[in-house]
Amino acid sequence: MTQKYCIAIHGGAGTILRSTMTPELQLQYETGLQNAIDAGYKILEAGGSAVDAIEAAVTSLEDFPLFNAGKGSVFNNKGMQEMDAALMDGKTLAAGAVCGIAHVKNPVQVARAVMEHSGHVMLAGVGAEEFARAQGMAMEEDAYFYTEQRYQQWQQALKDDVVQLDHTVKEEEKTDKKFGTVGAVALDMNGNLAAATSTGGLTNKKFGRIGDSPVIGAGTYANNDTCAISCTGVGELFIRSVVAYDISCLIDYKGLSLKEACDIVVHDKLVEIGGEGGLIALDKHGNIEMPFNSEGMYRACKTSEGRNEVLIYK
């Protein structure tokens, strides 16, 4: 029997409503998701590793300006980008992460380099950027990260003196929240799991704020014995709940299925403390879960058994 292989990705969760989405914009989002899932799946199909697949998928999402990661990253309070990313190998439990990094085209690639070449797990700020340059990573000037939509969001946030979740329209603050993060989880032909997450954080964020994305066990986790997880949501609450590791523990210690573990964490434990968002999860048997407790989540999955889904709403 051939080992099944599969991949799932997300482009963020939140209050994503059909009523505020044009057909043209929806098609752009769906195309971005499909291109990313195809990039990762192609590697798995050719016998490549889960780590290679998630790196390719997240790189594709970072290069797509509509998602809050890489090129589409939001502006911080100083009018710059501060990006976070993490990557974890479920086979070895090796992990790499960067936070508060600027000028790097693809933070997920730097996170992998941290895992493989630094002897550390997490590098931050100027030092992380220095490491990226030393590793020969693609760097970009500030202009590369400028998108009109993100700039206008920042201007509005400055005017209102608020920190915003990826995208907020002033007139509809309660109906247009998106937690901008991208991520991928994969299972390869050799039965290895991997997870990666990347984000530009919050619009108008100050003081070097870091969310859950680069925190191993909170926003990103992978273990061949249990599952691979990438989260998107209110980062502070995902850190406090150690969401990704909690799901792994429920499977490991209580013998729950992936679905049962995800449902308890996303729909019960997070909801109790006001933790809005979602995640993508994959277990060693190739089961995929993409739960969220918000209105929607940009998500997609593709399996060797022929499943290919690109979804946005509930």
Automatic annotation (TrEMBL):
One of its GO terms (molecular function) is hydrolase activity, acting on carbon-nitrogen (but not peptide) bonds, in linear amides. The record marks G180, T181 as: Cleavage. Keywords: Autocatalytic cleavage, Hydrolase, Protease. Substrate binds at R209, I210, G211, D212, T232, G233, V234, G235. InterPro entries: Ntn_hydrolases_N, Peptidase_T2. The active site is at T181 (nucleophile). One of its GO terms (biological process) is proteolysis. It comes from the Bacteria. Transmembrane segments: none annotated. It holds the Pfam family Asparaginase_2. This is Isoaspartyl peptidase. It comes from Flavipsychrobacter stenotrophus. The lineage of its organism: Bacteria, Pseudomonadati, Bacteroidota, Chitinophagia, Chitinophagales.
